[in-house]
Amino acid sequence: MSDIVKGIIGGGWPLLIGWILPAALNVLVFVLVVLPGAGLAGGRGISQDGLLVGLAAVVVGLLLAAVQTPLYRLLEGYVGWRPQTGEPRGWRPGAVLERWRRRQIERRQVLLGRVDLVELTQLDGAGRLADGDERERLAEVRADPRLAPYRADLARSAAQLGLLRERLGRYPVDEQQVVPTRLGNAIRRLEEYGYDRFRLDSQRMWYELSVAAPERAAKQVDQARTTVDMVVAMLYGNLLLAAATLGCTLVAAPGAWPLYLVAAAALVLTRGWYQLAVLATDDWAAAVRSLVNLGRQPLAESMGLRLPDTIAAERDMWSKVASTVARPYHPRRAALDRYRAARPDQAAAEAGADPPPGPS
Predict the structure, then answer these.
(1) What's 151's DSSP letter?
(2) In this predicted model, what pLDDT tens digit does every residue of 131-181 receive, in sequence order?
(3) What is the C-alpha separation between 102 and 173, in angstroms, rounded?
(4) What number of CA atoms fall less than 13 Å from residue 356's CA on the CB side?
(5) Residues 6 or more apart from 141 whose CB is under 8 A from it?
């Protein structure tokens, strides 16, 4: 019985901490601050108020968790965004988000230029700058007018440069993967990690990878994701709190002007929650990196494949696996056969040993 209870609590922990707890905090503020301030509090007792807060928190938390995918997509800048080839015009959502994407690309290029300027200048000063691409890149960043205000970076300490690299690290490696918002890029970098390094499409094969990877690595991903969920839930909870508070002002008793302060504070906090969500993705990205690095070999073995000896061959293998998973079968998918692991009897025959005994 205790094992069953532990399983239920363990499975529901991300839901409880990530969505229900933030909902409970916002509901608590609404019941204990907004309703009395609007003169709408009834004659309920403490036990009734506690039951109301608990039920409302569970309902709101479950609703937010049920629609978490569109909620995330809205913050990531995917909702309404349509990449355009020409110069976007007007105030259509797609055009606005495309401008935001171009601005994010510009910020990434500036951050990359600042990091390259410092690192290549240090190599040049130490006499270890290689001829060719490195010297061309150094000349390029020195001549870039966008980097003129950041010449002070050359005097930054190692810790300050580390923070600069962290900001750059919250963007995808591939500029084509950049999306319109900071949170979207911070999440996109962990989504592209497996594909960029090994051509392992971790998004398409997420469930297979999670099952095959070491249990601790998969648990770390869930824990890191729960932290981001909690911050996102607080953000949307504050938005709902502000909307509900403004709604209460329409029917509030005279002198309820402090409710406007509550609504304003909730709206201001949403910006802080957004920034915190961006920072919280660092642990999430590190956990996904660990999952990919440690789960590649178990995943290959569980799919009956043999992990190649070279990175180039491994990238070719995972590319073929992704093609097999994403597209209907075609005879050219048989190219994956070269990476299939030999059966025990075949391996024994190749090694010149007797095959393992069969079932008696």
Answers:
(1) G
(2) 888 999 999 999 999 999 998 999 989 999 999 999 999 999 999 999 999
(3) 16
(4) 6
(5) 113, 116, 117, 120, 147
Tokens of 300: 């290959």
Q: How many CA atoms lie within 13 A of 281 on its CB side?
A: 24
Burial class (CB within 10 angstroms; exposed 0-12, middle 13-18, buried 19+) of 307? middle
Give 177-234 pLDDT, tens digit per residue. Answer: 999 999 999 999 999 999 999 999 999 999 999 999 999 999 999 999 999 999 999 9
Per-residue pLDDT at 354 exceeds 60: no
pLDDT at 256: 77
Position of tokens 């349509």? Answer: 82
User: Could you please report the per-residue DSSP string of 279-338?
Assistant: HHHHHHHHHHHHHHHHHHHHHHHHTTB---SSHHHHHHHHHHHHHHHHS---GGGGGGGG
The rounded distance, in Å, linking the Cα atoms of 352 and 349 is 5
The pair of structure tokens assigned to 159 is: 């810790």
The three-state secondary structure class of 340 is: strand
- Flag whether the pTM goes above 0.90: no
- Residues with Cβ < 8 Å from 32, sequence gap 6 or more? 49
Burial 269-297 (b: 16+ CB within 10 A, else e): bbeebbebbbebbbbbbebbbbbbebbbe
C-beta neighbour count of 210 within 10 angstroms? 17
5 has a pLDDT exceeding 50: no
Share of the chain above pLDDT 90, in %: 68
**Residues in CB range of 208: below 8 A, 6 or more apart:** 299, 302, 303
Residue 65's nearest CA partner among 108, 15, 101, 133 is 15
For the chain, domain boundaries: 2-77+194-302, 93-179
**What pLDDT does residue 3 have?**
47
CB under 8 Å, gap of 24 or more: what pairs does 212-220 form?
A: 212/295, 212/298, 212/299, 212/301, 212/302, 213/291, 213/294, 213/295, 213/298, 213/299, 214/294, 214/295, 214/298, 217/287, 217/290, 217/291, 217/294, 217/295, 218/291, 218/295, 220/287, 220/290, 220/291
